[in-house]
Amino acid sequence: MVERYSNLKHHDIDCRNQGNLSNLIYAWSAFILLYYSYNSDDSLYITPNFLSSDTIFSNLLNSPQIAENRYHFPLATFPEL
Amino acid sequence: MPLCHHFPIDTKYNSEEWMTNCKNYLETSYPPINSRIKEIFRYVELDPLNHNTFSYEFSSTLRDIGSVFGSVIEESLTNIGIKPFRGRKYDIIDYSRFLNSEINDLKIIGLKIKSNFEEKYVYPFTGFNENEVKSKWWKDILILNIMI
Fold it and tell me: Is the pTM of this model over 0.90?
């Protein structure tokens, strides 16, 4: 119990200083890019259901460069990062 | 400016067992992290007003992402035979040097994010230089790992 309480105190500090939405978006972006750099085979893509969902994540990246390379990147909205 | 270049690391090392391990690890890690992200955005809108919105779930997810990110790259570095650039342990400089060596134009690889109203881009590797990394999100992940 004491240890758990200690962790909670740490959480308070972590959340306020680092655990914000902006950092999360950047980290998530890096993670997705890393994933695709290690999984360039289309058959390994595991995002179609994710992309076709009705959530805000349903949009595909569709730049000419990526279309050419058959890369699709899902990501959500975050203006003015 | 091109948004993204062809950057598959796996094709270069496709025959290596460690690459298979990395891919499997990423495939295992990807769904739960994405699920967490989706769940997060059920409650917090992706809006500039929420830039500094914080929560334990954000911290925890951020740390998980950083852990997977670091684990995959360190597995790669170890098996390729690249020694830590400084000190005994790998750090973000090693990650940055590796990614820069394997991926052309790393700094301008990004993701487009779309909303109902506009499109923006995220370039997470902009600060990943050869000898110095100026990346707030990674720095903050490191702080999280130290504190939690």
Answer: no
